[in-house]
């Protein structure tokens, strides 16, 4: 696999959030108080999650241990994984989300976004966020990490990487970043961190964000076997069928889908491979059926 990758080493990260700030500054993203202020929830993480104005969040996890402080920190990075087999790209009906062939990054074109939010529904990492309100005026637009594709094309590293003082972040050829991650994991194993592992090498067809997880996956809340949901591939087939009626018909169909409550979330519906039905997991009701010859009905 060719391309580049962002390298993140959780064992070196101090959660200073310099990367988080750099991302905001370079991409000219606001930090409104209503999105960043929060009541005490037991966590020092801020903001609590990604939002329409925040593409990168450093996560905070605490665990009991035998040190004098009684806790240990597991700092993590939450942002786009830039999967080679990207569910968001498969789900996007307008071509807003595409793969950059040279870098491997998943990039976006805001002008093509219609605010359907299918990308967020499909993403196994729940990364895409949207800004704006209302489908009627198409005011909702996707926002997520682009790998600072503008900087990379100019021969520079992503903004987050340039501001990392403890060298937890790096950027370069993907194969080199994987080799660096594997060597670091061996060092961590030798130091007694038996659960340390590389994440992103093979997941979702291979990612262009490579993580070194000091404590394994559990502390970082990453999925074990992320993949494009089968339902998303069904949706992609359906959209290609609908494309025959023209772009206006596709947009109208998307608006009707969400207006009638059949826009899906992966934790609310499932795909039955035997029947082709999309079923509500709570009620068992058939929400949608795909006929292979006739299309969706």
TrEMBL record:
Q: What's a single GO BP term from this record? A: cellular respiration
Membrane spanning stretches: 241-264
Write the signal peptide boundaries: none
Q: Which InterPro entries match?
A: 4Fe4S_Fe-S-bd, 4Fe4S_Fe_S_CS, FDH_Electron_Transfer_Unit, Formate_DH_Fe-S_su
Binding positions ([4Fe-4S] cluster 4) = 92, 113, 116, 119
> Could you say which residues bind [4Fe-4S] cluster 2 here?
23, 145, 148, 160
Q: Pfam families, from UniProt?
A: Fer4_11 (PF13247)
Q: What is this protein called?
A: 4Fe-4S ferredoxin
């Amino acid at each position: 696999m060719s391309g580049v990758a962002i390298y993140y080493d959780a064992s070196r990260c101090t959660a200073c959030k310099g990367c988080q700030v750099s991302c905001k500054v370079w991409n000219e993203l606001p930090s409104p108080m209503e999105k960043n202020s929060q009541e005490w929830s037991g966590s020092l993480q801020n903001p609590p999650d990604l939002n329409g104005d925040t593409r990168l969040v450093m996560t905070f996890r605490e665990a009991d241990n035998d040190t004098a402080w009684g806790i240990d920190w597991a700092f993590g990075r939450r942002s786009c994984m830039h999967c080679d087999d990207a569910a968001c790209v498969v789900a996007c009906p307008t071509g807003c989300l595409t793969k950059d062939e040279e870098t491997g990054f998943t990039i976006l074109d805001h002008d093509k976004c219609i605010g359907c939010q299918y990308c967020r529904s499909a993403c196994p990492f729940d990364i895409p966020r949207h800004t704006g309100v209302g489908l009627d005026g198409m005011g909702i637009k996707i926002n997520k990490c682009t790998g600072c594709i503008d900087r990379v094309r100019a021969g520079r590293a992503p903004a987050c990487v340039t501001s990392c003082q403890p060298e937890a972040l790096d950027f370069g050829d993907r194969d080199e970043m994987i080799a660096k991650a594997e060597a670091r994991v061996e060092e961590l194993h030798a130091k007694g961190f038996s659960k340390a592992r590389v994440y992103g090498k093979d997941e979702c067809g291979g990612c262009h964000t490579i993580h070194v997880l000091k404590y394994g996956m559990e502390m970082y809340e990453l999925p074990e076997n992320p993949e494009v949901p089968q339902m998303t591939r069904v949706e992609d087939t359906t959209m290609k069928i609908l494309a025959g009626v023209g772009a206006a018909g596709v947009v109208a169909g998307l608006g009707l889908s969400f207006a009638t409550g059949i826009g899906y979330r992966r934790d609310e519906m499932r795909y039955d491979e035997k029947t082709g039905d999309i079923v509500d997991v709570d009620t068992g009701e058939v929400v949608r059926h795909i006929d292979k010859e006739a299309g969706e009905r």
